[in-house]
Amino acid sequence: MKMPANGEKIAEYYDTLDPQVYEICMNAMGFNDHHHIANSLAIKIGLDRKSKILDLGCGTGIMGRLLSPHGFTEIDGIDATGHFVTTSEESGYYNKCHELWLG
Predict the structure, then answer these.
(1) What domain count does the chain have?
(2) pLDDT in tens, 48-68
(3) Residue 71 lies in domain
(4) Per residue in 3-31, is it b (16+ CB within 10 Å) or e — as a string?
(5) I want to staple 55 with a disulfide (CB 3.0 to 4.6 A). Which of 49, 77, 80, 82 is the partner?
(6) pTM (predicted TM-score)
(7) For residue 74, what is the domain's CATH number?
(8) Is 65 exposed, middle or buried (0-12, 13-18, 19+ CB in 10 A)?
């Protein structure tokens, strides 16, 4: 399926993607920003582990999975795709996840 140009159809597009395949594709393309962000929050900035974190565009829950080993437990997520919200919720790294289109 081709990526739609219309913003209203983007969530529908992502709902067609298997979360595991999505992560494999992101890794294959070299998308690793989430690793840099998690390391910056945990190590470089030294963010308090009790801080409340809102993961905008939580997708498959990668950020929660990366922050959890550093002791972060107050993580909520928002994503435009119901399928990915469910995946993030089921990961166990998020307190709450919500489906919401921001755009």
Answers:
(1) 1
(2) 999 999 999 999 999 999 999
(3) 10-99
(4) eeeeeeebbeebeebebeebbeebeeeee
(5) 77
(6) 0.83
(7) 3.40.50.150
(8) middle
